[in-house]
Design brief:
Radius of gyration: 20 Å
Strand order of the largest sheet: 3-4-12-9-10-11
Bound molecules: pyridoxal-5'-phosphate
Length: about 450
């Protein structure tokens, strides 16, 4: 395709910031490359065109990407996303509820879906524009590994990861610090909230403008939209098994609420093509701002600090995507979503019970979902689908503690252990980060 033809492949849908009521929409490419909007809000699509009715027959994430995404990201973008989503998402049923296993990608967590999609969309947008960019990611564990894996070596890009030095599991750290071309991992002397604060500060520092900083957290709309695909796949697999339109309850292990927001968007997308009677459960660990908000016990402006737990990828005090949820659903949120908060103790017990009763090893995040499911009244006339967000082998110490089992790592995880490592210590100040980023940019050619 020549350059003119490429430019003629725009996404139909425009994007606006959650904070700019009435502002003119920007293009998908602009929203993608900006990350957060300049006013500090998050980009959201101005309309949600549903997929053609045959989406219900789709067999894979890649099929769904080609059917659902063109209006949002353009035809070429949809094809690029489809190419990256080349792994299975099976449904299993170890007990009464169904599980959608989202962890069969390269870094064994569902974050591979968003990260691999975003990497391909960004490469396409940058090469169209002849620009380059620095992906700056604050990670509580799983995002960083998935992003580094997805972006490493892509033309015109470099990656900087900020992770809490003492807040990640040994397997997560192996993935974060595996030496990769044009990826730098910074071990921040602080908590995940400090990493988020440093990233926010960097985005708004004019001295760093030359680096083309952008984000790959679930605040980037290019990650959020592709995550709706596995929710659609889950719905279609369930409806094929149980009959179209069977009422569903989807349990989402939640932290920053990207996964849940994508699920609610998926529900809106198909509202016109199937009787989408789907309700959601936001299963949180003791970082329970959102369940408290839904119960009317926390104000929308609260910004609680995060607390470290065994389900560390969900250790988010003030979830970023909350802003998107309020923008889109406002006072309807408590009708659409129920919130549950689960302690570490209950998480360990649920891991043990799931293994003893069903022979199934769940990661601590999935176990938070399973425990939330077990606490709610059984079924309520709905079939339950719990999202299984990480492979248990990513958390071998916790699995051993809960069940006494040494879990075997899948080959993709074992490969990370063998790679040379590189990590740079970083004091949790803006000055330290800015100096490190400016000292030696490492864009790939
Ligand atoms: C990130 C993550 C979550 C939470 O997803 P959010 O989109 O942040 O709510 C749950 N489980 C695992 C394994 C994760 O990596």
């Amino acid at each position: 395709m020549n350059a003119a033809a490429r430019r003629a492949d725009p996404a139909r849908v425009g994007y606006v910031s959650t904070r700019a009521a009435g502002a003119a929409p920007v293009s998908f490419e602009e929203a993608l490359l900006a990350g957060p909007a300049k006013d500090g809000g998050l980009y959201v699509p101005t309309e949600l065109p549903g997929p053609p009715p045959r989406w219900l027959e789709a067999e894979s994430l890649a099929d769904l990407a080609r059917l659902v995404l063109p209006p949002f990201v353009g035809e070429e973008g949809a094809a690029a996303v489809a190419a990256g989503l080349d792994f299975d998402v099976p449904v299993t049923r170890p007990g009464g509820s169904y599980l959608l296993e989202l962890f069969h990608g390269p870094t064994a967590a569902f974050k591979d879906v968003g990260a691999r999609s975003l990497a391909r969309l960004m490469r396409l947008a940058l090469s169209r524009r002849g620009e380059r960019a620095t992906i700056l990611v604050a990670t509580s564990g799983d995002t960083g590994g998935a992003v580094a894996d997805a972006f490493a070596g892509l033309e015109g890009l470099q990656v900087a990861l900020l992770y809490p030095r003492l807040g990640v599991s040994s397997v997560q750290e192996e993935q974060l610090t595996a030496r990769r071309p044009h990826v730098r991992a910074f071990a921040v002397d602080g908590r995940f909230d400090d990493c988020l604060r440093l990233a926010r500060g960097a985005f708004t520092d004019p001295a760093l403008a030359g680096l083309g900083l952008t984000s790959a957290n679930s605040i980037n709309v290019g990650r959020l939209l592709p995550q709706a695909l596995y929710h659609l796949l889950g719905m279609s697999l369930m409806w094929r098994e149980l009959g179209a339109g069977t009422p569903l309850r989807v349990v989402v292990p939640s932290g920053n609420l990207g996964n849940l927001t994508a699920g609610l968007l998926a529900r809106e997308l198909v509202g016109g093509t199937a009787a989408a009677d789907v309700s959601f459960v936001a299963a949180h660990n003791v970082n329970d701002f959102f369940p408290r908000f839904l119960a009317g016990e926390a104000g929308a402006e609260e910004r609680p600090p995060s607390v470290a737990t065994l389900s560390n990828a969900m250790d988010v005090g003030a979830p970023s995507n909350f802003e998107r949820l309020r923008w889109r659903f406002g006072p309807r949120l408590p009708e659409l979503v129920r919130g549950v908060s689960v302690s570490d103790e209950a998480t360990l017990r649920r891991m043990r019970l799931t293994y003893e009763e069903h022979g199934y090893l769940a990661c601590p995040h999935t176990a938070v979902g399973l425990e939330a499911d077990a606490r709610l009244p059984a079924g309520e006339g709905r079939a339950t689908l719990v999202l299984a967000t990480a492979h248990p082998a990513k958390f071998p110490d916790t699995v051993l503690r809960a069940t006494g089992v040494s879990v075997e790592a899948p080959p993709s995880l074992k490969a990370f252990g063998a790679l040379p490592k590189r990590s740079e210590p970083l004091t949790a100040t803006h000055e330290a980060l800015a100096a490190a980023l400016l000292a030696e940019p490492e864009f790939s050619a």
